[in-house]
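A.,

Following up on our hallway conversation. Structure tokens first:
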């Protein structure tokens, strides 16, 4: 009789625990269903149709939008611009953020002031930052043009020259985003065990050797986070491109997101835009998978 009572009690306890877990996860599951799963299904359905946004009538195309996508030169140009932009931002921004974080980590006085100054561009809205940089990039009266003229150089048409428009966007992105990753690296540096650095110094390692052989290897999880999230944000970039260049000149800065926006709202091609959205998702999926896989590892959470 006693064993039966214990068995019933354990069954009720397990049932209550499952119910508690279910109730705790239900709100997140509902949000994910409403704002992620259902929109994904709808966009996949729309991508199979010729679906005008502002006029009646639609036609089922099957994979026609996807076939058109791979046959359109504008798509491949937008894909190339997107990858170049993302590679430029990540390849330049990661070492820059790491270098600034290493310098700030050595500072003992005024560190809060320096961190605030570095993080300030991150707090500025994208539109305001883009307007500010549009003023900086004025070819004849902007600050950069006056600086160029002071050195006797010809002013650069940053936003209207196809050779300079994309580097100009990358430069603005570095200014806007680097402060966030500096703080990420500072958090990673503070989490490093002090015993390892002390042991390296006792073994005679100098500052450069300690950084190269001890600090950087221990920061690999942090660097992975910076590379993956930086790549995702860069591939999804829209605001700076839209405000600064609008995709010009001659499509030199038209990213996939901007190309999708133009197809959906300027040309009323909702089905084709949905297919572009899935192409962007396929491009982002490896980074998203790496992000969740890496973030779930114990060394990243430590």
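Then the amino acids I'd put at each of the 302 positions:
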């Amino acid at each position: 009789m006693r064993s039966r009572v214990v068995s019933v009690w354990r069954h009720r306890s397990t049932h209550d625990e499952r119910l508690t877990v279910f109730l705790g996860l239900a709100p997140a599951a509902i949000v994910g269903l409403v704002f992620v799963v259902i929109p994904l299904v709808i966009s996949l359905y729309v991508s199979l149709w010729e679906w005008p946004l502002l006029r009646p009538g639609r036609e089922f195309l099957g994979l026609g939008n996807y076939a058109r996508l791979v046959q359109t030169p504008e798509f491949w140009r937008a894909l190339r611009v997107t990858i170049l932009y993302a590679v430029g931002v990540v390849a330049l921004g990661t070492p820059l953020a790491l270098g600034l974080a290493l310098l700030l980590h050595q500072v003992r006085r005024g560190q809060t002031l320096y961190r605030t100054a570095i993080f300030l561009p991150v707090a500025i809205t994208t539109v305001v930052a883009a307007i500010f940089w549009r003023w900086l990039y004025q070819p004849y009266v902007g600050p950069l043009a006056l600086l160029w003229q002071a050195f006797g150089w010809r002013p650069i048409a940053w936003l209207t020259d196809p050779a300079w428009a994309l580097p100009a966007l990358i430069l603005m992105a570095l200014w806007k985003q680097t402060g966030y990753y500096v703080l990420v690296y500072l958090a990673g540096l503070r989490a490093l065990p002090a015993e390892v650095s002390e042991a390296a110094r006792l073994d005679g390692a100098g500052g450069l050797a300690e950084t190269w052989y001890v600090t950087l290897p221990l920061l690999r999880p942090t660097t992975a986070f910076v590379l993956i999230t930086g790549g995702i944000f860069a591939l999804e970039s829209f605001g700076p491109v839209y405000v600064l260049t609008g995709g010009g000149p001659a499509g030199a800065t038209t990213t996939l997101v901007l190309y999708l926006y133009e197809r959906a709202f300027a040309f009323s091609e909702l089905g084709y835009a949905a297919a572009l959205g899935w192409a962007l998702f396929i491009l982002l999926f490896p980074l998203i998978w790496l992000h969740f896989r890496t973030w779930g590892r114990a060394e990243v959470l430590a």
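The chain has two domains: 2-46, 67-301. Curious whether your intuition agrees with the design.

B.
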